[in-house]
């Protein structure tokens, strides 16, 4: 609880102010490649919603442009990048659209959105290109890691702004959050992920992305990838807040878990890819 005696956790835990998963997102989450009809269904769900469709194609083109010629239609995306990758991109975009808010909050929403997409793209490219371990789940985990911040921005905007203000004065975001709301966006994000039934890998990343990466975690590698990707996204100018302050990055530990080139080298390669986030 914070000094005013108001405990935001009660509001959030009851999810009084948070949106339930939209019909579209819920539907996408439950589609599986084991059922052939689900392939067509995924395409038609995305096509039915033009703003979501254009963002899905935009993200698919940024992530996969090096590998395939431009992806022009949703069907084309399904053929080129596959069911799981398309499903994961569509799921994250439809989740973000739930948190879209009023014009006066647009600027900070965009900041958060770009930070998230950039982190997801970096996670995906690192696993695909530098670790040689293609994993669509790393994209989803990367892109949704700050979902708790979206929730705060959407439902508790006053507190969101106060946290940003406090973050200027203290060492870490965690400290600012504890001071203002008595909990963190990682905890809030975890509750939402549980409530929505998001995959376990996403939940673990949401909860631990600012912590010292523990090797004992079930998804230690993905947690490390997302922490590094979050750092790289920030280095490329995509901060979640208007305050340009770096997040925790336990470099030594991350590099013990992941066998990768130095961050500077990764940043150099990723710069060109990530810059297209601006056009989304
Ligand atoms: Fe975060
Ligand atoms: Fe982040």
From TrEMBL:
<dbReference type="InterPro" id="IPR013976">
    <property type="entry name" value="HDOD"/>
</dbReference>
<dbReference type="Pfam" id="PF08668">
    <property type="entry name" value="HDOD"/>
</dbReference>
<feature type="domain" description="HDOD">
    <location>
        <begin position="18"/>
        <end position="212"/>
    </location>
</feature>
<dbReference type="InterPro" id="IPR052340">
    <property type="entry name" value="RNase_Y/CdgJ"/>
</dbReference>
<protein>
    <submittedName>
        <fullName>HDOD domain-containing protein</fullName>
    </submittedName>
</protein>
């Amino acid at each position: 609880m914070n000094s005013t005696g108001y405990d935001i956790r009660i509001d959030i835990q009851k999810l009084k102010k948070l949106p339930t998963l939209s019909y579209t997102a819920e539907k996408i989450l439950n589609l599986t490649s084991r059922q052939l009809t689900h392939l067509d269904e995924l395409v038609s769900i995305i096509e039915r919603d033009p703003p979501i469709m254009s963002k899905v194609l935009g993200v698919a083109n940024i992530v996969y442009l090096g590998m395939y010629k431009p992806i022009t239609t949703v069907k084309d995306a399904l053929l080129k990048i596959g069911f799981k990758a398309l499903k994961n991109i569509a799921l994250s975009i439809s989740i973000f659209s739930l948190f879209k808010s009023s014009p006066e909050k647009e600027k900070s929403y965009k900041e958060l959105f770009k930070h998230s997409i950039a982190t997801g793209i970096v996670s995906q490219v690192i696993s695909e290109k530098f670790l040689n371990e293609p994993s669509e789940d790393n994209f989803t985990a990367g892109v949704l890691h700050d979902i708790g911040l979206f929730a705060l921005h959407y439902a508790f905007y006053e507190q969101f702004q106060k946290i940003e203000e406090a973050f200027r004065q203290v060492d870490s975001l965690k400290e600012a959050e504890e001071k203002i709301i008595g909990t963190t966006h990682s905890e809030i994000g975890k509750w939402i992920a549980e409530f929505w039934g998001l995959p376990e890998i996403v939940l673990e990343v949401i909860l631990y992305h600012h912590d010292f990466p523990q090797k004992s975690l079930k998804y230690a590698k993905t947690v490390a990838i997302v922490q590094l990707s979050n750092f790289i996204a920030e280095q490329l100018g995509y901060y979640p807040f208007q305050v340009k302050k770096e997040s925790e990055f336990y470099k030594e530990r991350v590099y013990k878990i992941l066998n990768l080139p130095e961050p500077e080298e990764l940043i150099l390669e990723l710069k060109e890819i990530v810059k297209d986030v601006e056009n989304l």
